[in-house]
Structures are given as C-alpha cells and as structure tokens.
Predict the structure of DNA-directed DNA polymerase.
Amino acid sequence: MIYGQIVTSDDVLRSIVTTEQVAERLATSRKVAIVNHYLYGVPSFVRHAKERGIEPIIGLTASIRVDDETIPLYVYAKNRQGYQMLMKLSSAIAQTENAVIPYRWLSAYSANCLIIAPVNDQQGYRSPERYDAFTEHLAQSTSFAFAISRQFGSSLAEEMDWITFAEKQGIPLTFYHEVRYLDEQDAVTYAVATAIRETMTLEEITFPNGGYALRSERQLKKMYEDRPDWFTVQEQLFAQCESYSLPTELHMPRYLQAENAMQTLKDRAYAQLVEKGLDDERYHSRLQYELDVIERLNFADYFLVVAHIIELARERDIIVGPGRGSSASSLVAYCLNITAIDPLRYGLVFERFLNEERVTIPDIDVDIQDTERLTLLQAVQEQYGEHHVAQIATYGTLSMRAVVRAVGRVLGISREQLDQIVSILGATKERELQRALQKAPELTRNLAFQDLWKHSLKLEHLPRSISTHAAGIVISPKRLVEIVPLQKSNDDLFMTQWTMHDIERSGLVKIDLLSLRNLTILQRILEMIRYNTKKQFTLQQIPLHDEKTYKLFQAGETDGIFQFESSGMKQALRQIHPERFEHIVVTNALYRPGPMAQIPLFAERKNNRRPIPSIHPAVDQILQETYGIIVYQEQIMQIVVAVAGFSYAEADLLRRAISKKDERALQQAERQFISGAMSHGMSQEEAVRIFQLIAQFAQYGFPKSHAVAYAHISYWLAYFKANAPTYYFAAMLSFSGANEIEPLIREAKRYNVQFLPPSLLKSRWNHTVEGQNIRLGFKQIKGLARTFYPVWKEVRRDETIRTIYDVARLLKKEFTEPLALDLIYSGACDELEGTRSTNIDRIPAALGIAQFGDAGSIKEIEGKTKDSLTLLEEEYARLQLYISEHPLERMRQTYTETIPLATIEEHMNYVKVLAFVRAIRTTRTKNGEAMAFVTVEDETATMTAIFFPKSYKRFAEQLQERTVLQLEGKMQFRRGEKELIVNECEQISRL
C-alpha cells in the first residue's frame, strides 16, 4: 500500500502527526509520501522512513494561480533531479505573496516530477473547466493525473463528471487521501491546532469530523470498492518515483580572495606570529602542527572565511568577542585574529577543538555586539552573494506553559484561570506537562479542564512557528537553493527551510554569530571614552593585573558583570579571593553544577588554609594551577598524555568516552588507560586510582578554553566598573530593561556617580557622561517615541534655546501637550527659563506658537505652584526613578532612628529601617501557614524583608506595593545577601 498524501507537524500546525509517528504507524508500507506546503522536515522524514524500511517519496503541496483561480497540486520528485526541482519550487513558493505561484512558473519547476491534481477538498468539487488552461501542456511535459477523495464525503454525479472529463483529456484518474492526524478521535485536537494557527476559537473552526485520519489499506479499499482501477493507477504513478538518497557531500565555504587557501592561511598565520612577538621555537612548532592538521582535513577555507567575517565586523566598528568555546584552543585562530587568546599562555589543547581522529567540522563561534548582527549579516551577504548566504531556521515549539495557554484560549478559558493554572504548573519545577500534572493532581481532578489536558498533551512540543536561529548562518560555495530550500526571513535575508540538525546533515557548514549584550555595553563604553577624551582606547590595552579590578571581584561586587552576577557566584568570589586572572578563569569554571561542590576545598587550598596532597608527580604538576583539583577537561587530557603516553588526539577520544557515561565505553577506556600507564612504569594500583579520579571529574569537567574566553569579557567589564564607573554605569543603563534601572542607579551612587536629568540642550538618546556625572538620555522618558530624538537633534542644531516657547517654535506641530508634560516633568526643561510649575502653566501659549508661529508678545499665565511631592511623583512616572531627590530622604528627617539599607553591616543584629515595598511574594510553610518575602528598598539599596507567619498575620494588611514602611527586626546574611526578619512594622504612607 502507498500513502501519498501525508502532512506532518513540520508544516506548522497544519498537522499534528510527527514524521517519527508516521514512520512507526506505516512501517509495513512500501512507500510513503509527504506533501507539506514547503519542504519543512524533509531530512527528518527521510531518515525516519528509511530506519523503518519505508521508501520515502518527497512531495509538497503547491498552490497555482490560473487566471483568477487558485488550484492546489501535489508535486512529487521522481528522482534526484526532480528533488532539485522541488527545492527550487518550495523556495519560489515561500517568496510569493500568499504562497501562490503563477501557472507559468510550474513548467519551469516540474521537470522530473509527478503532479497530481486533487479535484475536491473539504470545500467541495472544483469544476473541470478550471483545468482546461493547463492540463494539455502538463500532460505532455510531465507525469500528471487527477485525483478524487471521498474522505470529505462523496458525490457520484460530480465524480462522473470528472471521470468523463479525465477520459476525454486522456489523463489518468486516481484517488487521494490526505492525512493530518492518526486517529479519528484526534479530529478535535487537530481543530484546536488549526484554531491556534488561525488565532481563532474552537467555535469558529469548521472541520470534517475524522476526515483527515489515517485509514488502513482495508478501510481505503472499502471506501473505493467500486473503483479498484484507481488503486492500479496510483501504483503506476508512484512507481515512477525512484529510490534515492538526499545529498550529504560537504559544502565547505570558499574564501574568495585567495587562489590557494592553504598557502594564504600559512602566510598570514606566520606573519601574525611575528607581529604578535611570538616568533620562537615553541610557537613555531605548535603553529606548524595545527596547520598540518588543517591541511590534511582541508579546512583552510573555513578558517579564512571566519577570519574574513570578523574583519568585516571590525571594518564597521562592530565589536567582536575574544573568542568562544573550544576555538580559543587554536593558535591558528589566534594568529588570524579570530580569537584574542594565546592558547599556549593558558595551556589550551588544540585537540579539544580539532581532532583528526574524530573528524568533525570545526566549530568556531563568534560573539558580536547584539545591536549590529544584521549589519554584519548584510556585509557577509554582500561579500559572498545573497544566493550563497542564509540564516538557519528554527522552530518555536509549544512548550508546557505555551501549549496550555494556547489551547486554553482556543477553548475559551479565561486569562485569569490560565494564569492560575500556569502558576501551579510552574511551581512543580517540571518541564513536561505529564510530569507536572502528576505533581499537581488538583488540576486533573477539575472536570472543567479535561479537554484542556487532552489536547495540550497531544500538542505539546509540536512546532508553533518558524523563525531565524539566534546565531547560525550558512555560506555555500554554490547557490544554496541547489542544496536546501529557502525562504525570506523577517530581516529580508534568505533563511533555510530546514533547522540546524537537518542543515548539518545536508553537508552545509554552520557558522554561529552570537549576539552578546555585554559586547554592546563594552562598545558603548569605548565609544564614550573616545568621544570625551579624543583618544583611541581598545580592550587589548586593559591590563590583566589591575588591583582595583581584583578588589571588586574579591568583594563580590559583581552585579552586571558577565557570568559573575548570581548571589552564589558572589559568595564563591568572596571565598576564593581571586588575585590573578587565572583565578577569575577557574572561578568561572567551578561555579557550575557538579564542580561547585569543590569551591570550599579549592578556596581553602588556594588561601593556604589546607595543604595540597600529592597524587603523582606527573599529575601534581598539571594540577598545580588548580591546587590539586581537576577542574578543566584539558587537565584530564594532559593527565592521560603524561601518565599513559597517549597522544592528545587519543586522550580527547578517551575523555569523551568517559563523559558519555556508557558503561561499555567506560570499561574500554579504563583498560586502555591502565595498560598505557603500566607500560610507562606505573603500578596497576596507581593507574586504577588515577583513572578513578579522572572518571569522577570527567563527568563535569569544564573546557578551560570556554572559561578563559568568558573570563576576558567578565574582566573587561569589571575593569571599567572599578576604574571608570561613570562610563560603565552610563553604558549599562543604556542597554538595561526598565526593571533594572533603579538598582543600577542605586549601585552607581555607591560608586559616587551622580546623575543629571534629561536635558533638551545636552541629552542624546542614550545616556552619556558629563565630567563625573551621567546625563540621562531621552530613552529614559517613558512613552517618548524613538522618533523624537532624530527630529529634535536636527532642529536644535545652531539654535539658541532659552524657553519652552523656543522648543515649541522649533518643533512646530510635533510639539504637543503630552510631549511638553513629559519633557517638563522629567526635568528635560530644567535648564530653560522658569521652574517646572511655571513651564507647565506656559504650555497653552507654547501650543499656540507651535501651531501659528510667534505672534508677538506672550501673556504669562500665573498658575498655582505644584507641591514638591507631586512634582517628584510626576518625575517618577516619566523616568521610573527619582532623580531630583528620593522621597525617603525627606521622610528620614522625621524618622531619625532609621538607617539607610546600604549602611547595614554584618555585625549589626537588630535594626530599624525606612523603606518602601517593591514586590511581595507570599508562600506557605510546611504547616500550611502563610508568610511573605517582601522586596523593600530605599534611596541606597534593596533587600528582602521576611514576614514569618506570626508577623505576617499581624501586618499583612499593611503590605502593599509602593507603601512606605518603618520596619524593625533581626538581620541575617545568607550567601552575602541581607535579609531582615521583621518583628515590627508601621505603615507611613504610599508613594
């Protein structure tokens, strides 16, 4: 039996059956064809089908425009050449409006293809006259047939009309049966999926009940028992589809600016070795070894292309990271300026990156500032050709919470109920719905939600949308459409129709360009320093032995520092007390699940509070930098080489075998290691002991190359925070979310950074540095349109601006009352004549000037002066922070016994504070009693106030967000964080 019309879930929400389910259910079928609307999921379908012994047929559904009519067709590849046509057809469809192509295109893309025209669907039968315009041509140029389906019901009269028409045209007629779910009982779930896709409710969806279900051969033959010839025709048609494999040959990108890539690579690498002052035997030997491996594997073009991409970035002043991942282990990468890390200085092992005994495509990931990724992609496309460069697709799937919300909306469940349900599911800490429901049985007991669970469980993890991968791109030596189907992304660049794993199987080489906000922050710091000092300054000029920077790390003052922000990491820093760059590297590697258990031991050994035991002289030397503890994967490889005489390539294979936790592989690795160690003079007992040590740490050893690369970015940020805090905080504020602003400002003030309000005369869009102060940019004004600044920047140039009337005159009709209020209350007009109250009263006259121009003298209006607290609250409403002063500063003059939160120290036991409530999280104890964790803050800091059941019962009514409270209680410090256990609480006011 042949199933010729399977739609899979890769065709987003047009089916709820996966390719794996299709292959499993139809394992006894000889041939199965998919007909998604694009070639989504083709490699996955082919793989699953062949694993089950099914011959896959690749097809797609194409909508063809003939005159004013749209006609659907199934188009199948008959052979490898037909498959090439399908890729072009799928790419063409994806780039047309409404995914409909003109009829004339079809002949260009139909060579070596079988075309079946379904003449009816759930909407009914189409008229034969619709097909007159092109059937004659198609019947002559390619394999073509009509098909009738009875899955939507049948009409004998219209069937006879089609039988007569087909005979008259001399065109074969067969049946078709489109499958979008496996069983009849899945029909409603499919309708729910359709409603999600169409953003409708279930009541608005009409669907044939059970029509798209998979039917057995017996059922199908029963449905068409009066037309057995249709089965014969189907067999004849699909017999034309040959068996073939998808292309998998490697498509290495080509460096276009060199005839001999390998020679160019060698010349550049050696020239840079001299340029970097590394022209000695040790570096020459390592470089020659790496180049030999690269030449044998024929990867020279790949290195040159990645280096070229980084050059394109730097030409456009786009900041690039120091390296990411294992590529930092390559001296060639360092010499090509792909990385900024000298691998020999840090003892990095090349085979951790590229091992010719485990040949895989090298994986060089590149970090770039997140605001300029599109700019770089456009530059790459310009260099290598738009038909040779594409972003990679990725599926957005219906995760546990997403599927419950989506299905719930379709079923008409209120948002409030869904919020509550999702909250309960989230509290289970599970990521799979079935497991979460097992932990929250109260949800399944509610009969009103039975349909919600039934449909959500079936739809969970199915693709919901297709978009561009956050990082991956491909560059091909030949036109991509000959290798992979394409479509346009939201950025108007090409995007593959296949996701990452299918791309790699097709032989294309993925290059990851990862957006990193921290690099954008660093770039902003550098830009401001260069602008203000008129001097060039680069990250490479930052010394790695700066005392202020290490004091910052030692104190755990690492809020905002990449990879070092969590409270646990801060505690680790305080324990370890880093004193050189390698300590930053090792802290980064240790603070991860598994190795973090070693942090106390590491800290004690590092700070000479505990001796370092000897393991074996060869091992001791390797572990010297980490005080006798295995931290890095590279150390495991070095131990295997030193003790057992392995090559680094063999050591990498052994390390990988151990980390896979495969018992057979582990035993084999142990035998290899012990044999090698004993052959190098070690006793069996010693060899077993050292292998067990390796096996223990191999489970979670972190790549040192990763840690070194990350640590550079962390160190650079910390350097600026410690040495140029005004620039650091200005950049951080420019690229932080609304909820991050106030904590940043409070922290900046602890670094003696002062803030100036937005200024119509001086502000730019982002925050800037003025002397030792930060001038807030216009972006801080809530609701101010991004388009305001370019207009204002242009009109204020070379103008004298003294009053609000000048602002109105320059902006003309752009000047509105809401805009004026935003500018005045935010402080942007403070440098103009008049107070905030006065300028608010001048708005009506200013509006007249904006509309009609300066009409002579302006009559001043005497308004009522606004009280200072009202002005502060209006300021806060615009800026989401207090810039003039903090209300608590004035209140503290009355409540003199209270102390600022920032002044609380560990020796203080009982304190009285004045603070306002930022957030409240209630929970219950094991005994079921209510309690609360309340985030409170003042003008200096933030901390957690804990209301245990007894105090919560007394003061619950007073706990409201933005309420000012006077709190008394006992202090405790957990992981270096301040917590107040509340005994007394008095409500002062509301802000």
